[in-house]
UniProtKB/TrEMBL annotation:
Domain RCK C-terminal residue range list: 296-380
Keyword Manganese: yes
Required co-factors: Mg(2+); Mn(2+)
InterPro entries to which the protein is assigned, alphabetical: ATP-grasp, ATP-grasp_RimK-type, ATP_grasp_subdomain_1, RCK_C, RCK_C_sf, Rimk_N, Rp_bS6_RimK/Lys_biosynth_LsyX
Molecular function as annotated in GO: ligase activity
Residue ranges annotated for the ATP-grasp domain, each copy included: 104-287
Name used for this protein in its record: RimK family alpha-L-glutamate ligase
Key words of the record: ATP-binding, Ligase, Magnesium, Manganese, Metal-binding, Nucleotide-binding, Protein biosynthesis
Keyword Protein biosynthesis in record: yes
Amino acid sequence: MKLAILSCGPNSYSTRRLKEAAESRGHKVKVLDTLKFAIDLDRGSPDLYYRQKQLSDYDAVLPRIGASITYYGTAVVRQFQEMDVYCANTAHGILNSRDKLRSLQILSRHHLGIPKTNFVRDKKDVLPAIERVGNAPVIIKLIEGTQGIGVLLAESTKSAEAIIELLQSQKQNVLVQKFVAESKGKDIRALVVGDRVVAAMRRVAQGQEFRSNVHRGGVAEAVELSEEYKNTAVKAAQILGLQVAGVDMLEGKDGPQIMEVNSSPGLEGIEHCTQLDIAGAIIDYIAAQVDFPEIDVRQRLTVSRGYGVAEIYVPPESKFIGKTITDSGLLEQDINVLTLYRDAKAIPNPKYSRVLQPGDKLLCFGKLDSMRTLVPANTRRKRKPKVKPLDSGI
């Protein structure tokens, strides 16, 4: 395998370890500066140039995109994807995780624990937002902060108001988040590779510091996670579209609470504390997946006119309840079920003998007109836009 590691820090611990792990397994590997690429666009032939020369062929790419170069870095990753090169993390996944608000918006519709969070702009909405998350103390976060920077604890409502007002005056977007008191000063970092957690550590803050990040003096210890925490970490990474991720969770009284998902997790702290070859696990996973580059399914499947991807909800009064997918008549209407969502489970490529239940969601590909008739009438009325006739005059 010929691997490219995209990194602006070739001497950083994580980049060096990934390069060493790849070379020790007999792979060819190069560390390429993300900012030295030029993106070449032409009809039917997307290409990349590196340091003014056409880039040679690579089998796989491992992006290590820093927050300060997110826009350009994800553009480079996206170009590799359009060239059908396997990317351990896609541009879409990186963008989803980099924005704290965006990631929580995506996770909130799934059955995963997240701290109650509010995002407001109007000064009048600040107090109601603080009340909705459970009143002070509250956590205030910058949307794009990293390594604990831009995370503040407001002990009172007045101090929360003052902090938010100050940050907003500086054109900063902030989140107001519930303070999970039982986890004060500690959190869990789970390192997800593919569909498993390869290592985990508990980070504990020191002194009066409530942030447990190792960069802020937190002490790390290896921890064996329960199945609930492992499943939560893996699902969070997969929902956001990441194959390699650091998932940070709080230990709440009701189970794991996801704080954020990092698409370029540092390896130094977790490797030292667990004594595990995490870099090697990442390289082994990439080598196993290199023949299956990630594709934008919606983009590819919606090329055919009149066909597309849609989610069909099965309400309690649906005629489908108690019927199998075969008996539902979907196949006769040229509708294929790609994934069945039931409670917190996603069942890919479900068997046609599976019986449908109230609350099921079906991710389908097929004729849009046929699928439109299956949307409940009240939902259809809310969503159906009024189409005005075109003016024939020029």
